[in-house]
């Protein structure tokens, strides 16, 4: 396979070709705009599929209807708006009209060029009256001009001489999704369109959010071999913005835009690429994952990374803890500017988080479990608001960002307030109580990452993360001379944090009651009853020892150094046998920890189960969008797992390569410097910049990279 | 106060006179029909108040909208239908029409005659043109003919000579209640009316339930001093019933109906009256409570006792565990036929309970937490379906019924299957696990009676009740030679039932985690923040030591004999200080237990806080209906508390009279025989029937009544 072939994902290489699946996988985006690879002629109901376009942060809202209301419940749903299939065109040849009768359209090829950041397609088209031609398309969402989506159309090999009229009749009806699947959710949104001189403004009726869309070169009479380059300029409008002049930018032509795109991707790959020897399919799959991570991340500080990126409607376009715990490690170590933008979003929604804490009669701030604009939208609080660990997850990410980049200025201006306000929340929500005969700081009535337990006392992961949150708050308070009067209370809470441990079994307790519950009857549960959440009432799931995903094991991945190898192994073995991996966030963590406890072959199996999750449609729901966190998880499996990356006063790396992977090469950025890491067989090496402030030492078969 | 004055409740004696409040208190009912004491001229929007009529079991349904759906959730709301103000009449004198312009109507008197079961009213009416007259009304829902509501109108003292035309234009619009109060709930229902020859059929659009209403003598031209007796015949139609001939009964005239009514109440009071010396207001208040208990109980085996009786729309007309734990003791000991009818309802809905257990992937049967037709309608399962203790509550009531009445035949035909199926559920839902170093039967992930904790492990009340349920199942299985193969498993589960106990503090654990949580910050919670459920998010409430109502104390009331007096006192003192009594089911239980642990004065204070709850509108929501369970609770406070009634191989009674109550006299029925009990000062006496199978012995200052 030639080098750049491993950067090309072709539709015909994939296991199936259903339109909705390809629309997701071949969606192009730039963190602001995402366009599904919809049928090129679909402008109305005539052609199949579920195409559409998304603008990060453009959502509609509606009141949440509760069967039974209670005080403090989240008030409104938020749903990302699916805009029309921008790339879809109406073609007319003489009296024939592709929007009036169905034209035969057969793909010749559909290739996502990961290296250049461009989607190349060509189709063989036959009209009802037998006119044939090829439609060639090249499209991308510009990485350098975030408002632009560009699509070039070319007509080739016609068997007729008339011109083809090409137009973009953008229309949008209310989008209504009805489903019982809680992973998708049922919502409706309604759009109002107002036409202006050379653009239109689309307004969501309830949220009153608006975007302006300008279609440049949307229409043309094309002769054979001619091209039309349509540029869509899309701008999310601020509430107080003057709607009359949303666009004031001069636009470059297609070649310039294309060149910029390629340069941007060149930089991206230089920083982010992971080279894997020994498995070309895996190599391509990993690049596909990294490509989608680059496509989905909001970069403007006002938007974040939706669970499905900008590729589909799954999870309503909401932002979760996925960003901090599954995506930010990749960005922090390879593209810290994007990490900074994503973290800035949390700073921006801090007022909503403060408001939410107040609604819960608590001090400080509590970030929304799921949101677009910062307000809590979780309609089932036991697996929503009760996952208060999101506060500490966000703080963990700020802290990791600082440690890896050294960017204290950002922490001072943005991060520190988040850290202080969340620390205040913990002091308010947690309780200093007598526990097992002594005073302990307990966090009761919460839900940890494992959503198959809910409203428990002392979730291990939560307590571990909160302890870190408090210590970091103390560090920053001391650094910036703030909250001197609170430091001792934070110190006491952190020092007395309760961690449950079953002395008899020698197992870390996921929560106070977990180990005392009956183990789920796995042996009598048929395969078709998974995922359990779709086949069992929550209260039945909750009362069992059964995990949807890594919880204690995730805490131990983040704080591996705090545990003996023996303890890590015992906990791993115990929790592995009660985990269903019904969440796509699970296997990557089990992979990392398998690497770290010395079972590289198991680590490889877990990794391979998910590295190609979307390309192979493992979970059968790629139609709703990519699984962004799982893509970030595949990076974790490789870098935190096989390469053992762990922060410990610097970067520690180790070689945990499984048999099947012969060689692994990648770059990390530490203190602003690139560090090239290579693993081969049992060796590990690193290459520092020519002029470096870093020092790499080899120890215990690994490498420890520190500041001089 | 003359004897029968203490049977007369007069509107002018009450603290306030708002129409909705009087409508509830003066509602008349017979367990099948309930009619609020609405404005006599209200047939449309012209007059105020919120009048209406109810037929037990006549409800509409609609799908429950969940913010986020999950498997096994209850599917439909059910809401009792508010029918028109049956007693409201349209009057016309010449050109004047009471339904077209507002006539002045001033009550002269409004008296509920508890002794006769009749509501007596008279009003002074003035028309816009100055015609004046008195409207005298006498109304009741017939206790002997459950289909009939009777209202007699008389015109007196006219200042004019024309006749008055009186008509009953029954119309009903869709009733829509919108509220955020979870104790009321927001629902809509829609009625369709079809007219037949001399009756109409009203059908609820979604549930497709129908009733036929015949209005007999609804219209007349009345001269002064003349009367019109209108009879409403109302019949809930079975699905397969021929709608053409719902009525085939000959009707008696008013005097006969009235006489029957008085005889019925004579019998009722002979069996049920409680005589209290020393406090006439209390005496009347208690009778008022017993009267409403008699009015609300469904007697046809297909209906039950709604939380608000048939007096209002609160709690949507649903049946809860209130029936078994707060109302059935009264009926079992005074009117066992009504108790039998209420328990028969549980037998009738057993198929729905079996279905529900299946939906929860469990064996046996799980009764709905709230329902009309037997299907679960609780839209918030942590304080609904998770209150699985209702299963054991129902079994407790069957068992008490059998012990007190000796009616084994009913247990064999109806009760035993309920007992077996619930026992199967427990074996399926509970888990035999290792707990505190030994094997224990644990019931995890449930909510006990105290709704300020949810989804806990090993709720003490639940485990205690389930143990009893299992033992009773074994007893019946042995008696009837059934389930021989399951007895040993039931025995093991019951014998190994887990009960949490805090050795250090010497306190019974409400659940595994309760005592390890922080105590609610009562000292910093202002009075206006109660009830807590209206001012704090559930997860904040749940994570604290705070009880809405008696839980452990309720278990100890039911099984007082299983605990040492010292333990009862310690637990009482502990739980009392963390209980808000935000539920109207709380204080009566604390009163009973205060009596039993020797604090009669505290028992009296708790009793007095609630004995007159509705007459004084203590909770400010009498407008939504009476608090039936609290009325039953006042009986418990008196009989289980002050008179110490406790089943122990017979009836044990004791004298715990508080200072303020000089004398207490009442009748209980045991093994079909009346037992007259009198308490005075420190004495207690009983009088058995002349020919008796019972034996009364005095012991420990109390009386023990057993079978010979």
Automatic annotation (TrEMBL), chains A, B:
Q: What is the organism field in this record?
A: Enterococcus entomosocium
Respond yes or no to whether keyword Nucleotide-binding is given for this record.
Answer: no
Q: Taking every annotated instance into account, which residue ranges of this chain make up the domain Glycoside hydrolase family 65 N-terminal?
A: 14-235
Q: What domain of life does the UniProt record list for this protein's source?
A: Bacteria
Which keywords annotate this record?
Glycosyltransferase, Hydrolase, Transferase
**Which InterPro entries does this UniProt record tie to the protein?**
6-hairpin_glycosidase_sf, 6hp_glycosidase-like_sf, Gal_mutarotase_sf_dom, GH65_N, Glyco_hydro_65_M, Glyco_hydro_65_N, Malt_Pase/Glycosyl_Hdrlase
Q: Which residues form the Glycoside hydrolase family 65 central catalytic domain?
A: 287-635
GO molecular function list? hydrolase activity
Q: Is the keyword Protease assigned to this protein?
A: no
Q: What is this protein called?
A: Glycoside hydrolase family 65 protein
Transmembrane stretches in the record are none
- Please state which protein family the record places this protein in: Belongs to the glycosyl hydrolase 65 family.
